[in-house]
Amino acid sequence: SVIEKSKRLAAWTAVDHHIHEEHKVIGIGSGSTVPYVVERIVQQGEKLNHERVFLPTGFQSKELIVKANLRLGDVDQYPSIDVTIDGADEVDHDLNCIKGGGACHLREKVLAEAAETWIVVADYRKNSDVLGTTYKQGVPIEVAPFAYAKLLQNVHLLGSENACLRMAKGGKAGPVVTDNGNFVIDAPFDEEMMRDPHELLTKIKMLTGVVEVGLFCHMAQAAYFGNADGSVTIKW
Ligand code: DER
Fold first, then answer.
1. Can you tell me whether residue 113 is helix, strand or coil?
2. Which residues form the signal peptide (predicted)?
């Protein structure tokens, strides 16, 4: 499909621009775009990849690394990462991202912060101006299960009347449970609040029981978007 082609285009271009011989410790994000990142890295050859270690941002990311026969590493052993490449749900004009559509944003943010360079890859649907314009499900917030009901109230008071607990769809009754054993609250905020994502991030993060917030502000060095016409848009 056009969207899959644009994901591959973004991922291949980002790998070609940012993953070179000297990069040995590489963070792999989560979602449906990063498989194309791994695909392109594998094409750099076994010899080069045998000298590298790849750190996952969750179960799906780990499976991707293992299935590609790449060397799996642990962030405990490699706290400093050369490059991490990850997807996003939406990217604004300032490279701020909504992340967490896949409920992996805690480990994603740890590996994003630990990386010398953090690069976002996405299809054209994610290329936005103000967050919340295209990704309407709300800011994903990973929360401690014990605190979720109280947090829902506090997130409502903060300005998200429609905030709700993310329920599993099919295959499991009850809420989505993250790789860390936590719940996710999706909290839509109005455009006014989404125009200052860093301010919003700070307010949400201060609420008791919040584990991590799916707003990645001032973290990306560049974002690559594949377009339907076969071109690539790079924001930096
Ligand atoms: O959850 C995340 O942050 C993932 O990176 C995900 O949102 C990216 O989505 P994708 O499937 O469009 O790459």
1. helix
2. none
Cβ neighbourhood burial of 94 (10 Å; 0-12, 13-18, 19+): middle
User: First CA to last CA across the chain, in angstroms?
Assistant: 27
Query: What is the percentage of the chain residues whose pLDDT exceeds 70?
Result: 100
Q: Is 108 a catalytic residue?
A: yes
Atom of ligand 1 nearest to the CA of 104: 1
- Contact between residue 105 and residue 212 where contact means Cβ atoms under 8 Å apart: yes
Alpha helices in 72-147 (DSSP H): 105-113
Q: Over the stretch 128-160, which tens digit does the pLDDT of each residue have?
A: 999 999 999 999 999 999 999 999 999 999 999
Q: What is the pLDDT of residues 23-39, one digit of tens each?
A: 999 999 999 999 999 99
ipTM entry: 0.96
